[in-house]
Amino acid sequence: MIRIGRGGRGTSRRTSWRDVAIGLALVLLGVVGAARWFDSTAQPVVILQTAGPFVAIGLLLLLVLTLLLRRWWMLAPVTVAVAVAAWISLPGWFARTAPDAKTDLTVMSVNLSFGMADADQVADAVRARSVDVIVATEITPDALASLEEAGLGRWFIEQVGETRPESYTGTMVFSRFPVTETTGDDPVDAHTPSLQPEVVVDVNGTPVRVKAVHVPAPLAGDTEQWRAALRALGTWRDRQDVDEAFVLAGDFNASQGHPAFRSVAAGLDDAHEVAGLGWVRTWPVVGHRMPPYVQLDHLLSRRLTVVEAGQTAVHGTDHAIVWAAYALPS
Predict the structure, then answer these.
(1) What is the CA radius of gyration of the chain?
(2) Could you confirm whether the keyword Nuclease appears in this record (predicted)?
């Protein structure tokens, strides 16, 4: 009887530690996941906000572990947490595109990483998708020369913007359609050292505004500027005529996990999310020990129908190219 009693107490102690371990894991994942709702410029919070997919995966594994260990009383809170993660994540896995629609405009964005991206591969991606407009950030004079030598000088008839030597601040917009530059002295551009040219593209008689985006990275000491640049993009969106079709294209240095980015994207179509591509990862593609885990490059649009979207990795840059095909409003 005594041995049985001791065994029972030992089993009880082991059981309680399992419950505590599951509870601690749930709290940790919950705290990291909840960071997505805090509009903060504290760099640790900004970094944690990119971990949403890992939280979802962790919660799913925790649910499996809870079932295997038969910790039934812990099953309810873990299931609730998984349900919340699914509510956040699953919409991005279901396409809402119009694949049968005629493509009228294809827009691409590439961060050339101080002009080091492989120009031939960029040109190949442009031709493969019959790109009409490309936004190229971190473009240098040498990168422009390489792109033109690779054939983009013959592919595009319009160029707007500037290169910057040995800098990440140069940005250019190339177009196969006639464009009218409308950059001006827009207050949205005062919050980033990078150029963010703006054009109106004449797509066979239909105007589509394209705004290049290059938000500062949320590095230590720069998170206030990062937040201000995103807030300014939201202000830019609100200033546009409600009937005007437009695309915001470029390196936002922010993901859906950041409240600041979701504020910009509110009411707009994020092409890759609309395409149901799930966990899209555009950074860091090459040049880092860590694998790509977050989408920093986006194509946000209004009054355009997303036909399809995707991304392409090229050598020389740690950002993937992103592209989207659109149908004009009828």
Answers:
(1) 23
(2) yes
CB atoms within 10 A of CB 94: 11
Structure tokens at 119: 């120009």
Cβ proximity of 107 and 133 under 8 Å: yes
Residue at token pair 């993937």: 320
**Residues 193-204 pLDDT 10s:** 999 999 999 999
Average pLDDT over residues 308-328: 97
Q: Please state the domain extents for the chain.
A: 2-92, 95-327
Whole-angstrom Cα distance, residue 39 to residue 224? Answer: 11
pLDDT tens figures, 58-78: 999 999 999 999 998 899 999
User: 95-327 adopts what CATH topology?
Assistant: Deoxyribonuclease I; Chain A (3.60.10)
Q: Is the pLDDT of residue 302 over 70?
A: yes
DSSP 253: S
Query: 136 with 162: CB under 8 angstroms?
Result: no
Cβ atoms of 286 and 313 within 8 Å: the answer is yes
- Residue 11: C-alpha distances to residues 7, 14, 23, 75, 135 (Å): 6, 5, 18, 20, 63
Q: What share of the chain is helix, strand, coil (3-state, %, to 5)?
A: 45, 20, 35
Task: State the Cα–Cα distance between residues 76 and 322, nearest whole angstrom.
Answer: 40
